[in-house]
Specification:
single chain, 400 residues, alpha/beta, Cobalt-precorrin-4 Transmethylase, domain 1, Methyltransferase, Cobalt-precorrin-4 Transmethylase, Domain 2, Rossmann fold, eight-stranded mixed beta sheet, five-stranded parallel beta sheet, 13 helices, 30% helix
Length: 400
């Protein structure tokens, strides 16, 4: 018999209730698999002399055992196996192996039902073995209802502490522990502050609901609100120029953005607020940039900006980018542009703001144009900006 699967979704109830069709499939099985908890629950239902394969990490070892058996295997999984579940994993790893699925309610459905909460408009994020990125994006977008799947590291209290650090305390947290188990099921609704101080048992999931007093998303932050380098407002890109720079970068259609010479982090922060989907990497040679980026990211609720302190020209990078802003170059404009160009995706761009004053000639503008031409880049028409009594600024753009 060739390898094939039946995947059965189930709850944590120690006295499981399966349909007649599911019970018939179990009674005809010989090889079964699932977590240790699943084995404890269904052991009495399994045929005598059946084989059980524990699902443990590393999963490659489990897959090898499946292939070695090369027969029909019945797998037990929590909830809906196609909802961030094991059936989805099997489809990815063994796309050509036949499979049948008997689903159960997923944990977020169960929690919503317990709360009598309609969930058709819920934005769902899995943090099970995954980074914070999608969750951070949902918070920045002020999603009104967020369903979260957790793991043993990204627990409800750890999630609440992260939300508190970045100012997302305008949500309520509803937590479900051991859902479906009548002996240990627990439902609680807490403020972010209270959740950050509590402890929770596994397994659990949670739903975040936004409160009526949630602040509006920012667009265009006055420079006076940022924590500044030595209090110097001249070291930060002015708000109108900042927004015109983001427009020139066309970040709405980009996936990755580099901010070189971020100083206070103002460009990265505005980009994160306006375009949460972006992967942002920010670079600053001055060590003071670390504290500035961290304090300003928390002040303006923009988690997820990846920053690097040190000389950009000496930083090892093995990724591509779609758009780059050069906010500072320390006299190494050509080296920076050439390095960026080597990582720039086709159609990507570099934007640079050149300031002209009585003391500073237009050399940086001419240098940018000359370097861009030598790299074979297409130059856009410069935007010439004059703000009040400030020096004129040319927003320059070159495309690969």
């Amino acid at each position: 018999m060739a390898l094939s699967f039946t995947v059965i979704g189930m709850s944590d109830n120690p006295r499981p209730s399966f349909s007649r069709e599911t019970l018939d499939a179990i009674s005809c099985g010989r090889v079964f698999s699932g977590g240790k908890r699943h084995h404890q629950i269904v052991e009495s239902l399994l045929p005598r002399d059946s084989l059980w394969i524990d699902i443990t990490v590393p999963l490659d070892d489990v897959y090898e055992k499946y292939r070695k058996e090369d027969c029909h295997i019945i797998v037990f999984a929590s909830g809906d196996p196609l909802f961030f579940g094991f059936a989805s994993t099997l489809q990815r790893v063994m796309p050509d192996v036949p499979m049948k699925v008997y689903p159960y309610f997923n944990s977020l459905q169960i929690l919503a039902h317990k709360l009598l909460m309609p969930y058709h408009d819920m934005h769902i994020v899995s943090l099970t073995g995954r980074p914070w990125k999608e969750f951070d994006n949902a918070l920045i977008e002020h999603r009104e209802k967020i369903g979260l799947l957790t793991d043993r590291k990204k627990t409800p209290d750890e999630i609440a502490r992260r939300m508190k650090d970045y100012g997302f305390t305008f949500y309520s947290m509803h937590i479900g522990e051991h859902l479906g188990n009548p002996e240990s099921e627990q439902i609680s609704s807490l403020s972010i502050e209270d959740a950050s101080k509590a402890t929770f048992s596994n397994p659990n999931c949670l739903i975040l609901t936004i409160q009526d007093n949630a602040p509006a998303r920012r667009f265009g932050i006055p420079e006076s609100e940022f924590d500044l380098l030595d209090g110097r407002q001249k070291m930060i890109t002015k708000m109108p120029v900042r927004l015109l720079t983001l427009q020139a970068l066309e970040l709405y259609r980009r996936k990755t953005f580099w901010d070189i010479g971020f100083c206070t982090g103002s460009i990265s922060i505005e980009a994160r607020l306006a375009f949460p989907h972006l992967d942002i990497k920010a670079f600053e040679i001055r060590p003071e940039g670390k504290d500035l980026m961290e304090s300003n990211s928390r002040k303006f609720s923009t988690p997820g900006i990846e920053y690097h302190i040190g000389d950009f020209l000496e930083t090892e990078i093995d990724e591509t980018c779609d758009a780059t802003f050069i906010g500072g170059h320390g006299g190494h404009l050509e080296g920076i542009m050439r390095k960026v160009h080597s990582h720039l995706a086709p159609g990507g761009c570099i934007v640079f703001n050149s300031v002209t004053s009585n003391l500073v000639a237009a050399g940086s503008k001419d240098d940018f144009i000359q370097i861009a031409n030598s790299l074979g880049m297409k130059l856009a028409e410069p935007m010439h900006v004059i703000l009040d009594n400030n020096n004129p600024i040319d927003i320059l753009k070159a495309e690969k």
